């Protein structure tokens, strides 16, 4: 009887330790990896109209300047994108 109570105490101590460790790991993971990304998403979602218009105008001007160039992509980038599109299209068949 004493041995089973001892085993039960050891089991509960291990269970509490593992639970605590999992909570700490999840908290560290959240703080290191997800908090920064959620912060960026919050900033993007809380943009006012003026800032959104500035971003849209900047995007438009960058697109226009990109379209005025003879080549938008370098040869290496073009080959990579072509291979990527071929791979995706072969997987979708």
Beta strands, count: 0
Provide the helix percentage. over 70%
**Distance separating the two termini:** 66 Å
The whole-number mean of residue pLDDT values reads 86
Radius of gyration: 27 Å
Based on secondary structure, the structural category is mainly alpha
The shape, in one word, is elongated
Beta-strand percentage? under 5%
The figure for the number of domains is 2
Return the string of H and E elements.
Answer: HHH
The oligomeric state of the chains shown is single chain
Report on the biggest sheet.
none
Q: Supply the number of helical segments.
A: 3
Low-confidence stretches: none
Short description, anyone?
The chain is mainly alpha-helical and about 90 residues long. About 90% of the residues lie in helices and about 0% in strands.
Structure commentary:
This protein has 93 residues and is an all-alpha fold. The chain folds into two domains: 1-46; 47-93, no CATH class. It is 88% helix and 0% strand. The protein has three helices and no strands. The protein has helices at residues 2-45, 49-68, 75-92. It is elongated and about 85 Å long. It starts with a helix and ends with a helix. The model has no long low-confidence stretch (mean pLDDT 86).
């Amino acid at each position: 009887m004493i041995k089973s109570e001892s085993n039960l105490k050891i089991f509960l101590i291990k269970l509490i330790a593992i639970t605590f460790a999992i909570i700490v790991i999840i908290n560290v993971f959240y703080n290191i990896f997800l908090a920064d990304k959620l912060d960026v998403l919050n900033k993007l979602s809380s943009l006012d109209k003026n800032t959104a218009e500035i971003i849209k105008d900047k995007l438009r001007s960058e697109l226009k300047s990109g379209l005025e160039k003879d080549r938008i992509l370098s040869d290496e980038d073009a080959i990579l994108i072509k291979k990527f599109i071929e791979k995706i299209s072969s997987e979708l068949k």
